[in-house]
Write a structure and sequence with these properties.
heterodimer; A: mainly alpha; B: Four Helix Bundle (Hemerythrin (Met), subunit A)
Chain lengths: 119, 214
């Protein structure tokens, strides 16, 4: 191995964070990608508000519920994945958040069911 | 049989009994490749899900038990609240653009986007105060009925979270102007950003469940 190719252990340690930084930076979306996500979220919000208009509101309640829940989940997912970087971050972060979210859902769905809210 | 006694001195080792305390701005040692502060923020947000879960499910439970003729959901001004929701949604975009700016070392753009985020948050809070005032004048107070109590508790708690977020954003701006918040500690911006986006996703749920559900 030539002298220039040799890497001392302390040099390797110094090089690692720089490599990691570059890696991290390349994984993050560009400003334009963020703007595209925001436009998509704005369109979803417009569809949500559209369901409130009188002519649409008179339609089947179950269908409106279903549409609103799907849009709400989509908006939630896009903000968490793109703006909160869960799509690019370590799975540990995602799991911590999902644990809290899942636990809250379980507890309060059980609570509402015990009060027979769905009847 | 002779024994040889080594006369070499033992190799020098580093004293590891007292680990060096990290100074301000220096990263703490962690047993995972991630920062402790970021993990703590995610844990905090996970626990916040339980707080808002309690408030949202209480609202669902109580608003369905409103006696006939009592003031309730018909009081809502959906076009106005939709505009507030849009403002809060766009503040998430400006927040992420502020993080992108500080990551790239562009402090001028960072200051513009962080100030815009705080202003949009302020607009949302202003809208909420206006909405509460109108509802109160129309006869819906905190103790008027169970719907009023559940509604004001839920949206009020959310508003308090947005207000804390605005204080955090302004703190970031002041720190940056003083030179204590630089590209090196952009993680602080990321952590405040996580809080801000969380407040936004909670509003996504509140807006749908409280205002739009038939």
């Amino acid at each position: 191995m030539s002298e220039t190719e040799e890497i001392k252990p302390e040099q390797a340690e110094q090089a690692e964070p720089v490599e990691h930084q570059a890696d991290e930076h390349s994984q993050h979306p560009s400003d334009w990608q963020y703007i595209k996500v925001a436009i998509f979220l704005a369109v979803l919000t417009a569809i949500e508000v559209f369901t409130y208009f009188e002519s649409v509101h008179r339609l089947n309640n179950a269908a409106i519920f279903a549409v609103l829940i799907v849009i709400m989940i989509l908006k939630f997912f896009y903000v968490a994945a793109w703006f909160m970087h869960l799509k690019f971050d370590s799975p540990l972060m995602r799991n911590i958040f999902l644990m809290g979210m899942g636990f809250a859902l379980l507890v309060y769905l059980a609570m509402l069911t015990s009060f027979r809210i769905w009847a | 049989m002779s024994t040889q006694v080594s006369t070499e001195s033992p190799p020098e080792t580093e004293d590891t009994s007292t680990p060096a305390t990290p100074t301000a701005g220096e990263a703490h040692h962690t047993s995972t490749p991630m920062s402790n502060a970021k993990i703590m923020m995610w844990l905090f947000l996970g626990s916040e899900c339980l707080l808002f879960g309690a408030l949202i499910s209480t609202y669902i439970f109580l608003s369905n038990r409103l006696p006939e003729g009592e003031i309730g959901k018909e009081i809502f001004d959906i076009p106005f609240t939709s505009l507030s929701s849009f403002i809060l949604l766009m503040s998430s975009l400006t927040m992420v653009l502020a993080l992108s700016a500080i990551t790239g070392g562009d402090m001028r753009r960072f200051r513009i986007w962080i100030t815009t985020t705080a202003l949009l948050g302020g607009l949302f809070i202003g809208g909420q105060i206006y909405e509460f005032t109108v509802f109160y004048e129309e006869g819906l107070g905190y103790t008027t009925n169970i719907f009023g109590s559940a509604f004001y508790s839920l949206t009020g708690f959310h508003g308090a979270h947005v207000s804390i977020g605005i204080i955090l954003l302004m703190t970031l701006l002041v720190m940056n102007l003083r030179g204590t918040l630089t590209q090196e500690n952009k993680e602080t911006v990321e952590i405040v950003g996580l809080y801000w986006h969380f407040v936004d996703i909670i509003w996504i749920i509140i807006f749908t469940v409280v205002y739009l559900f038939p």
